[in-house]
Amino acid sequence: MAESKFGVMKGHIGDAPYNWTTGRTAGRLLEEFRDNQRFVGFKCPSCGKVYVPAKDICGECFIELSEEALEVGPEGEVLSYTVVREANPESPAEAPYALGMVKMDGADTSIVALLLADEKDIAVGMRVKPRWNQERVGHMNDLEGFTPA
Questions:
Q1: Domain spans of the chain?
Q2: Could you read off the pLDDT tens digit of each residue along the chain, which spans 149 residues?
Q3: 3-state SS assignment for residue 28
Q4: Taking the CA of residue 130 as centre, how many other CA atoms within 13 Å lie in the half-sphere pointing to its CB?
Q5: How many CB atoms lie within 10 A of CB 7?
Q6: Is the peptide bond before 17 cis (omega within 30 degrees of 0)?
Q7: Beta bridge partners of 82
Q8: What is the pTM of this model?
């Protein structure tokens, strides 16, 4: 694969390995995960919407987002969640586990991640904070999940 000025993600589909470039905004988000254990978003210069996770193009205005990364969080709010009771080999955790849509403070969009709390303690509107893996490599898995704030 040709070198890119952006980060390169590695993955696999079944037994087929592949690489892809992360792009400008997602690459910056993953660098911040790895280096600073924080979230950043990017703002649309037209409508002002702040995207986390980052995109290169505004989904409303179809224009390129600003070059400047904005720190968001460090806390967020659970907008919705689901409890997964039957895991499969690709599951991020052993069942049962909860996945939540979390909107970071200062962002206008949400990110899906593990909610690291007892199922009975999870609620819409719950305040959460990220928990980072000890070893971070610039990947979405650097974020272990969210715990109650």
A1: 8-148
A2: 444 455 666 666 666 666 667 777 888 888 999 999 999 999 999 999 999 988 889 999 999 999 899 999 999 999 999 999 998 888 888 899 999 999 999 999 999 999 999 999 999 999 999 999 999 998 888 999 999 99
A3: helix
A4: 24
A5: 19
A6: no
A7: 99
A8: 0.82
